[in-house]
Amino acid sequence: MREQDFLKYLRRNPGPELPELARFAHAVVIPAYREREELPAVLDSLARNKQAESVAVIVVVNHPAGSRAAQSLELLEHLRLRRQPRLFTLYAPDLTGGVGEARKAGMDCFVRSRRFGELDGCFIFSLDADSPVAENYFSTVIPALEASPAAPGTVIGIRHRPAENEVQEQAVRAYERYLFRYAEKLSAAGSPYGFVSIGSGFAVRTSAYVKAGGMRKKKAGEDFYFLQELAKQGPPLKIAETLVFPSPRLSARVPFGTGQAVKNLLGGGALDEIPDFAFEKLAELLADANSPDGFLSDPAQTPPGDTAGFFEAEKFGTAWRSILANTPPLHEAKLKAFHRWFDGLKTLRFLHALQRQER
Predict the structure, then answer these.
(1) I need a surface site. Which of 12, 27, 78, 264 has the fewest CB within 10 A?
(2) Do residues 43 and 54 touch, judged by C-beta distance below 8 A?
């Protein structure tokens, strides 16, 4: 990334500055809204961490536009009274973009404390206010990213905490297995987007964060869309060790996610499992794309077999000709460009299209 791109990002994303953040190499950002009971356990778990002295903790206290501010103000006062070292607070009232906007406010604040030459060696951890961490959270992730300078970030192993009762526990574990299975099947098929996207389960190199355009301002799915963009820079590290323990609580605040999925299961709903044959078709497609003689070698070629209809609907031919006009005539460059176009969202749509054909 060029320094002028960094400066452009700062100009386009103005906001509060906390000069004290310059003393810390890294930061963990925690959006908090009505989590007065859950947040202390998260802060305590971070304080017990090895290497915590190098990491600032930024809590973004927020509430949606149109909601009462009383609980947020109470939380701000509670955090002020904690007098915890390395703890910083931002107040973000009347948000229209939900948790994504709050997460972005904290991450951008840390970015503004950096000098350009520091960006590659500084990491931003994404966490939630109901997700305590293991004592080796920082001491595992920081060395892993330092040892892998080409990685734009890392996805981190999570396991939801035990639920209040057996029925809810079964629902939580079913959803958890569903997430892991989907990521594993994507990886097995050869997709670079085979990882679990969850807001409390990743860390990002600050330079890669800026290059990706920053966190997405969304009420839900901001983690998916951001990590999808991040993966276009290169494969994120996968730390399989369980280091984060999110809440299994029910929630209807967002249209999807753990809380909504568990609530749906408890109400008699089912998870939308994509059948194995769809992943087999995906594997065939990606194997053809990987081949120097495959459909990427000639703009006149179309994807193989019965997957061509999806690509026609997505106007792949037109998009691909435009992409090739700005891509070096090397297979590796074409493959990278294809995966930027055929990203995590298009891959999911592709799998769902195959699933519908079978029904």
Answers:
(1) 12
(2) no
Side-chain-side CA neighbours of 358 within 13 Å: the count stands at 13
Distance (Å, whole) CA 243 – CA 28 = 14
pLDDT digits (tens, 9 = 90+) for 115-167: 999 999 999 999 999 999 999 999 999 999 999 999 999 999 999 999 889 98
Domain co-membership, 281 together with 145 = no
Structural domain total, the chain: 2
Residue 271 lies in a domain: no
Pairing of strands 26-32, 153-158: unpaired
Task: Give the Cα separation of 127 and 29 in Å (integer).
Answer: 6
Q: Read off the pLDDT of each residue in 245-261 and give the average, rounded to a whole number.
A: 63
Choose among 203, 151, 190, 154: nearest CA to 342. Answer: 190
310 and 228 inside one domain: no
Question: 39 and 94: one domain?
Answer: yes
Same domain, 250 and 297: no
Looking at the fold, whether 191 and 308 belong to one and the same domain comes out as no
Degrees, nearest 5: CA angle 136-179-350 = 135
CB-CB contact of 154 with 244 (8 Å) = no
Residues 289 and 261 in one domain: no
At residue 50, the pLDDT reads 87
Residue that finishes a domain, picked among 266, 293, 321: 266
pLDDT one-digit tens code per residue, 157-201 = 999 999 889 988 988 898 899 999 999 999 999 999 999 999 999
| Token output for 199 | 């807001």
Residue 302 has pLDDT above 80, yes or no: no
For the chain, the average pLDDT equals 91
Query: What are the CA-CA distances from residue 321 to residues 102, 295, 304, 349 (Å)?
Result: 38, 13, 18, 22
Check whether residue 178 and residue 303 sit in a common domain.
no
- Enter the pTM of the model: 0.92
The predicted pLDDT at position 1 comes to: 86
Range of the domain at 254: 3-266
Distances (CA, A) of 343 to 81, 216, 249, 255: 45, 16, 31, 22
Residue 182: strand, helix, or coil: helix
Give the separation between CA 351 and CA 16, rounded to whole angstroms: 42
What CATH number is associated with residue 69? 3.90.550.10
**Neighbouring-strand partners of residue 123:** 205
